[in-house]
Amino acid sequence: MLEARHLDKYFREPVKFHVLKDINIKVEKGEFVSIVGSSGSGKSTLLYTLSSLDTDYDGEVLIDHTDLRSLSNDQLARLRNSSIGFIFQSHYLLPDFTAIDNVMLPGLKLGRLSKQELLTAALEKLDLLDIRDEADKAVNKLSGGQQQRVAIARALINDPKIVFCDEPTGNLDSKNARMVFDLLKELAHGLSQTILMVTHDESYKTDRQIRLHDGQVVS
Known about the structure:
- It is built from six helices and ten strands; from the N terminus they run βββαββαβαααβαβββ.
- It is of the alpha/beta class.
- It has one domain (30-55, 80-217): P-loop containing nucleotide triphosphate hydrolases (Rossmann fold, 3-Layer(aba) Sandwich), CATH 3.40.50.300.
């Protein structure tokens, strides 16, 4: 589902710095993989590069056998919306919109389903995450754990081929953090959803861990 071949990444300001060094990794369909390493090891930079959010790199990144470098900016934007889900440490929900409206937004942009079909799909995603009863509440009225569940539902609304998570439990207390992790694990193992997650918490046991040190894969 995801492959990086001889991936190198440089920061160029204020001085040139080699941040990712000859990364070669594969993530199979339905795998739940975590990227771990100390602060400054390049974890988030690698995630952003693999997920197409950062396109300034050397080497190759392929999602479902499509080389990201072969796509125009418009094609890349459509790929992000149709085939990639994103879950961040901050949920980035629209606070005055309801939970259901937030979940539906990427689907409305993609335009693959009618509004009624999209509403049904969004309710199904909220139901899957056990938050359907909060569908009509403004998200600023929800708890942190509930907001992150809405963010997960939003990431899933277009049935992405892969979901990228950048410290998705970082802003949550331990109880809600474990709940979110268990939901991600259930999505991977129960629905064969491919997930790549950056985390500083190595106690989260995913199918496989990719360990970075100073921009290199060491295990």
